[in-house]
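Hi R.,

As promised on Friday, here is the backbone we talked about, encoded as structure tokens. Could you run it through your design pipeline when you get a chance and send me back a sequence?
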């Protein structure tokens, strides 16, 4: 999940909870013959890990520090249709939002502990009403899929899996499925689900309770926090500042200021362009005015594992879940511009290759999802982050307040030219409009090589071929 938060790697302090988990896995591996972990997780290796635990240096410097007071957390529900929208459960429950389908699935959830939490909702209801077996609400379908076969076996062993089945849940194969539009349980138009429906994300307990009652709600044991005024969070550590960390923060700010001044006084040198690589890329801007446009919006999940789709078919369905009119509005060599956090969501690389199939060579956004950004370069799609451009487009193309429907995709008449050699973009805001420039990140020679080769896989094959040829001479 570190990658989902836009980091390339993440380091976490090890604690007693992790140690207990590792000890259990080491014992399992030693006792059970079918465990493949016996060489990787042993009590000796756990001893070694906790004898010298990974910790940060006292004088470590961070780009940003954030704190969250866990004592102020309350159950939240994300949605509709975006994980960027979150509402406390006690504010959402009184709205009695009807649900059609509920899912306790996915590879980052549906562990045995999650299934146990969901089963407990039905068990508690049964204990409170011993004469009436708990069943999911009429008109609701509940689907369950364990994260893996061993997790399902663990849930079956303690009876949690059967409890959910007895309540009316429908079992799906372990692993991924409905999240990426595969298998049974997919939602229909108008239901709480995909595109013209609404989707919410919540904890296993909330999903189970909502399936039981037919509306978004919490379990009967849930109590609204007393005097709750919101989650306490912010920059820093949340601790009282000391003279030492005040001085450290001041020095970091001064170093940052010096770096900014130096970057202005010493502009970037020209980039070394690979022979045959275009020094400039130019095209008309086609604007998809949306933030958090996820990979399912770019390339629908129902096509993800259809390996027989041609390049032309991929181009045709590109952006289908975001705007069905996108296919007819775009032209070869357009430059796609969208809002912030473009390409968030799942890691499907077809989100990048489908855009390339549309013959769009460059994506520009306020910010790019980290996984999408990496997938783009790996598949020879170029991307830039230019927040100013998004702001200018939104200012120029803002619809009147009496407009009820925004235009999802727009041909702007604006052109963007990326001077790769000078790491500079020039935007012409339509015929007779303003022209402005902005410095952007460098496209290094090694990235150019990957793009010129047609992607990372093709580049690796070519390099292996070179080595093999050299070895044979």
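Update: got your reply. Pasting your designed sequence below so it's all in one thread:
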């Amino acid at each position: 999940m570190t990658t989902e938060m836009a980091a390339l790697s993440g380091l976490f302090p090890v604690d007693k909870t992790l140690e207990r988990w590792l000890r259990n896995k080491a014992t399992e591996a030693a006792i059970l013959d079918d465990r493949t972990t016996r060489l990787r997780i042993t009590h000796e290796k756990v001893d070694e890990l906790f004898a010298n635990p990974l910790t940060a240096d006292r004088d470590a410097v961070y780009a940003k520090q954030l704190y969250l007071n866990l004592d102020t957390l309350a159950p939240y529900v994300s949605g509709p249709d975006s994980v960027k929208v979150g509402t406390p459960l006690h504010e959402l429950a009184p709205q009695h939002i009807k649900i059609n389908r509920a899912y306790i699935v996915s590879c980052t959830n549906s562990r045995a502990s999650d299934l146990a939490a969901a089963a407990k909702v039905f068990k508690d209801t049964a204990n409170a009403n011993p004469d009436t077996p708990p069943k999911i609400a009429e008109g609701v379908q509940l689907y369950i899929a364990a994260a893996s076969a061993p997790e399902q076996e663990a849930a079956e062993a303690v009876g949690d899996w059967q409890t959910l089945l007895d309540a009316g849940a429908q079992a799906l194969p372990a692993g991924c499925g409905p999240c990426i539009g595969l298998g049974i349980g997919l939602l229909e138009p108008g239901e709480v689900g995909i595109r013209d429906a609404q989707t919410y994300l919540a904890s296993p307990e909330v999903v189970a309770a909502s399936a039981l009652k037919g509306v978004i709600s919490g379990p009967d044991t849930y109590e609204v926090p007393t005097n709750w005024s919101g989650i306490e969070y912010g920059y820093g550590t949340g601790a009282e500042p000391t003279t030492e960390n005040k001085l450290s923060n001041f020095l970091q700010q001064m170093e940052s200021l010096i770096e900014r001044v130096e970057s202005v006084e010493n502009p970037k040198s020209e980039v070394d362009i690979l022979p045959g690589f275009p020094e400039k890329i130019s095209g008309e801007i086609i604007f998809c005015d949306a933030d958090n446009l996820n990979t399912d919006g770019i390339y629908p999940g129902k096509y993800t594992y259809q390996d027989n789709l041609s390049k032309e078919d991929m181009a045709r369905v590109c952006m289908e879940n975001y705007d069905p009119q996108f296919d007819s509005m775009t032209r070869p060599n357009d430059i796609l511009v969208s809002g912030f956090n473009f390409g968030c969501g799942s890691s499907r690389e077809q989100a990048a290759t489908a855009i390339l199939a549309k013959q769009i060579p460059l994506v520009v956004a306020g910010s790019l999802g980290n996984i999408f950004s990496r997938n783009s370069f790996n598949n020879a799609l170029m991307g830039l982050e230019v927040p100013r451009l998004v702001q200018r487009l939104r200012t120029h193309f803002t619809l009147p307040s009496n407009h009820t429907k925004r235009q999802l995709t727009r041909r702007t008449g604006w052109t963007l030219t990326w001077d790769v050699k000078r790491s500079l973009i020039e935007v012409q805001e339509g015929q007779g409009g303003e022209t402005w420039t902005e410095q952007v990140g460098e496209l290094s020679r090694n990235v150019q090589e990957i793009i010129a080769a047609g992607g990372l896989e093709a580049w690796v094959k070519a390099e292996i071929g070179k080595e093999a040829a050299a070895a044979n001479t």
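One thing I noticed while checking it: Confidence is low (pLDDT under 50) at residues 192-196.

Thanks again,
M.
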